[in-house]
Amino acid sequence: MSTSSVTLYLKAEQNIELQSEDVYLKDIGKLTCTDENILAKVKTIKLHHFKKGEPQRQVISILKVIEEINKIYPNVTVENVGETDTLLEHINVDRHKGPIQWIKLAFVAMVSFFGTAFTIMAFHNDIGINDVFTKVYEMVMGQQGDGYGILELAYSVGLAVGIIVFFNHIGGRRITKDPTPIEVEMRVYEEDVNKALIETADREGKMIDVN
């Protein structure tokens, strides 16, 4: 098949995490082509090599990727249906192993638990929840309450159930197949961070791009 009539489709990802120091074209996204030989060759094109001492986070432009493809197959048409720039991150898995990681995990869990508990208590103290319960009890029962009763118990149970339903998790199990609010916010945050890093690299001229 003549390469002049071949179209290579590339769907580049926004962020790629790699354990290998060598970055190949197949790592940055998905490719498809009617010519299997061209597709196999293109996938093995090396785009970058992470050296020791340099930043382990690089941004590569898809224009640079197309340029590298055209060096081998100048007549192949490249259609990018994904991102225009890709953030490459070299991850050292061994660096995250050991007891230090478990200590960090325990610390974050404790901060999350006690921080949330303190926030709930502070909120209830600000709105005077005990006074509200007392007034409601007097209005319904016609007399002053003598301590914690069914109203406080029902509110506590309802608060716990509401949190579980809202966050769509109980223990390690998901209640429904829908993503949780935290997962949605984390995806939005991750996308915003990636865009900021890409724009910063472009402004500072540190992007791997065409000349």
What does this entry look like structurally?
The chain has 211 residues and is of the alpha/beta class. The chain folds into two domains: 3-95, eubacterium ventriosum atcc fold, CATH 2.60.480.10; 96-202, no CATH class. The protein is 48% helix and 19% strand. It has six helices and ten strands, in the order E-E-E-E-H-E-E-H-E-E-H-H-H-E-E-H. The chain has helices at residues 36-43, 62-72, 99-127, 129-141, 150-167, 181-203, and strands at 7-12, 15-18, 22-24, 29-33, 46-49, 57-61, 77-80, 85-90, 169-170, 173-174. Strands 4-1-7 form a three-stranded mixed beta sheet, covered by helices on one side. A hairpin with a 2-residue loop joins strand 9 (169-170) and strand 10. The longest helix is centred in the middle third of the chain and has 29 residues, at 99-127. The two termini are 31 Å apart.
